[in-house]
Design a protein that fits this description.
- β3 and β4 form a beta hairpin.
- It is built from 2 helices and 5 strands.
- It has a 5-stranded mixed sheet with strand order 1-5-2-3-4.
- With about 110 residues, the protein is α+β, with helices and mostly antiparallel strands.
- The chain has a single domain, classed as hypothetical protein tt1805.
Length: about 110
């Protein structure tokens, strides 16, 4: 099965968000072909959640799991640590008071 490159996946994700009027932007651009992607959901109330894609060895499915959540400053510190480990990492920040991120929609774990 052919996998999408990171830059194509990010572009498609940003387009999906834009189509439903959810503001999002790239805060860290990683490797265009194979960089991992983290999605930070900022609910604009001082809190945030960071999601990372995970592979379930038992089922073979890819899912989005919480990497960090809580006060936005703490979440940003966790993101800085992750970027320190992996400079090829992409970070997408989604801003939505209702907590929408669309990561649970079909096609976004592929």
């Amino acid at each position: 099965m052919t996998r999408l490159t990171a830059d194509i996946w990010v572009s498609a994700y940003l387009t999906r968000l834009r189509l439903v009027d959810i503001p999002a932007f790239i805060t860290a651009k990683g490797d265009a072909t194979a960089g991992a992607v983290l999605v930070k959901l900022n609910t604009l109330d001082g809190k945030a959640v960071v999601y990372q894609r995970s592979f379930d060895l038992m089922s073979g499915e890819r899912t989005w799991v919480v990497l960090s959540e809580g006060a936005e400053t703490d979440v940003d510190a966790a993101l800085r640590r992750q970027r320190g480990f992996d400079p090829d990492l992409w970070v997408i920040e989604v801003e939505d008071r209702a907590g929408r991120h669309l990561l649970d929609e079909p096609g976004l774990c592929d």
